[in-house]
Write a structure and sequence with these properties.
By secondary structure, this protein is an alpha/beta fold. It has twelve helices and ten strands. Helix 7 links the parallel strand 8 (174-178) and strand 9. It binds NADP nicotinamide-adenine-dinucleotide phosphate (NAP).
Length: 323
Amino acid sequence: MEYRALGKTGLRVSALGFGCGNVGGLMVRGTPGERERAVARAIELGINYFDTAPLYGDGLSEEHLGATLKTLAADVLIGTKFRLTAGDLKDIRGAVARSLEVSLKRLRRERVDLFQLHNLIGGPDALAVAQVRGEVVAALQRLQQEGKTRFFGITALGDPSALHEVVTAGVFDTAQVCYNLLNPSAGFPIPAGFPAPDFRLLLARCREHTMGVIGIRALAAGALSGTPSRHPVAVPTVAPIASGPDYATDVTRAQKLSPLVQEGHAADLVEAALRFVVTGDAVSTVLLGYSSLDQLEHAAAAVAKGPLPPAAVERVRSLWRQM
Ligand SMILES: NC(=O)c1ccc[n+]([C@@H]2O[C@H](COP(=O)([O-])OP(=O)(O)OC[C@H]3O[C@@H](n4cnc5c(N)ncnc54)[C@H](OP(=O)(O)O)[C@@H]3O)[C@@H](O)[C@H]2O)c1
């Protein structure tokens, strides 16, 4: 496993991380045996970063991750999150602290390595930049001083200008960035009329401020497998994030990338999608949501093949022009 610097934190994270979210769902709906086997195997493969949140299975993901790591007596890096509701905005500091207390109890730990804002930033139903840079940062700095989180970060979803502003503030250690073959705009200029929101090279902005980047939705929730069927443990229906209007459209667009496989650039679309995200060093770790141990094995083998060669990246760029 390759390890990469997580911004200026001093931590080194595995290029492939473990997403304990609701979509793949192994850490939410898997049996205790399945969860233990998957986490043990992930650690054996060298994965050292696990991402969870209170919202994943309404606390079940944190609870299960905590229990599994205790059973395995495993020491890994853990990131969790907090999402503020409209009612929390009267007392952001208190709400952030209370959320972490509950998370620590579920995770059975005294502290987490990373505590991240889970709200959208900028625009309707989102926190304003001023709230994030002001009260949210103050709340997080206090928790850091108390030793309850080592570092803190954002989810880089919401209004692109607002995201660039928050990154430019230079206060956050990390950003979870949606970056994949269906929406490469955080890393590449996209053609005019490209059917996805434009993050306007956010990865370069993160680099300018030495923020650690955690790649999310590398497979567009599974659509980048190019097949519409879902694993029984996965959520049966899923809303896209920053890609097409629905999952079926994402699958259809993913299929347009199949020349990458037909022309021998990758063994399958999943491999192409994962190797795309680890190409270059802009992303510290790519999180993947797993439904099964097989998916974990497959992902680790894909990432082990390393970045896509320049000819494959050029081919992807030509395919984007036809999407
Ligand atoms: N901060 C945020 O707001 C945020 C948002 C989204 C995600 N995340 C984090 O990022 C993680 C990953 O995101 P995600 O789970 O939403 O999306 P994702 O990783 O793009 O997609 C997960 C889906 O990909 C498919 N898959 C995984 N490995 C595969 C393989 N080897 N071969 C074929 N298909 C495979 C599975 O689909 P099937 O089950 O249908 O087979 C799985 O459900 C989450 O667990 C979470 O930790 C954070």
